[in-house]
Every structure is written in C-alpha cells, then in structure tokens.
Amino acid sequence: MNTLTLDIVTPNGSVYNEDNAEIVVLQTTAGEMGVMHGHIPTVAPLKIGHIKVTKDGKSDYIAVTEGFAEIRREKINILVQSAESAEDIDLERAKSAKQRATFYLEGDKEDTDKKRAERALKRAENRIEVAKFK
Ligand code: ATP
Q: Which of 5, 65, 76, 133 lies most in the core, judged by the most C-beta atoms within 10 Å?
C-alpha cells in the first residue's frame, strides 16, 4: 500500500512526523476530510480540532489549533499555531484554561475580549476531548 508522509509544524518547530501514514483525517473549516496517497493537491484551512493518523490499524490523535494543511500526492504539511499529541496534553492545564475562559465569558467584558475568550475555550475543550485518546 502506498503511504503518505505527514509533518505537523508550529512556530515552535516540528511537533509530529510520520512517514508511513495510511490515512490522515483532517478537520477542515468545510468539514472532515480523509486523505490517502495520491490525493489531488490542495490547500485546506483547518479549524480547532484533531488530526487522526492511521498506520498498521492503529491511530494517533493530535490536537491542533487553527492553521492550514498543504496536501500533495505523497505528503501533507500542516502548519498550525499549536499542536499536541494526545499523550502530551496536560489535562489539568487545559481544565484551568477552560475555567479561565468560562470566567471571562460569564463576566461583563468588551466584545474583543469575548472573542478571545471564546477561542481560548474552544482550544481548551478540544484538548480535553483529544486527551481522551491517550
Ligand atoms: P494556556 O492558557 O494553558 O496557555 P492556550 O490555549 O492559551 O492555553 P496556546 O496559546 O494554544 O495555549 O499554546 C501555547 C503553547 O502551550 C503551545 O506550545 C501549546 O502546544 C502548549 N499548550 C497549551 N495548552 C496545553 C496543554 N493543555 N497541554 C500541553 N501543551 C499545551
């Protein structure tokens, strides 16, 4: 079976690399997208969510924030603000971030602060979900 190379890169450097992925499932702003070797080259915007990488019948889950996937026939490059493999997620940290964001959202702040808090809440909830795949 032909496989794919996957690289997940953030401003802090490479977070995940797999040279023999059988299928990579991305959560794009337009919905879920399964990518296998030979996919038509494209660029897809990603939403806060996870990337599922399957190899030898086993899957890895990586939490990601907003960014882009560059898809080529043999390779996917993911560029996102932050990414953590399920096993690297600090659950307590994510729970505290969720609490902080919820506190802001319940308060009487200006709109810009609310938008920021809403995104922080999404990141925290996403990490809490992905940590379940540890
Ligand atoms: P926090 O308020 O806890 O910093 P955040 O959503 O503001 O959360 P980000 O700005 O998305 O954090 O990420 C900053 C850095 O911290 C990134 O390198 C990211 O991978 C890492 N990070 C954030 N939250 C966690 C977590 N719960 N577990 C592991 N790494 C995390």
A: 76
pLDDT tens, 31-87? 999 999 999 999 999 999 999 999 999 999 999 999 999 999 999 999 999 999 999
Tokens of 34: 């399964």
Q: What is the spatial distance between Cα 11 and Cα 14, in angstroms, rounded to a whole number?
A: 8
Q: What is the mean pLDDT of the chain?
A: 96
Q: Whose CA is nearest to atom 24 of ligand 1?
A: 94
- From the alpha carbon of 89, which atom of ligand 1 is closest? 28
**Using a 6 Å cutoff on CB, does residue 85 contact ligand 1?**
no
Among protein residues, the one with the nearest Cα to ligand 1's atom 29 is: 89
Domain 89-131 fold:
1.20.5
d(CA 24, CA 3): 10
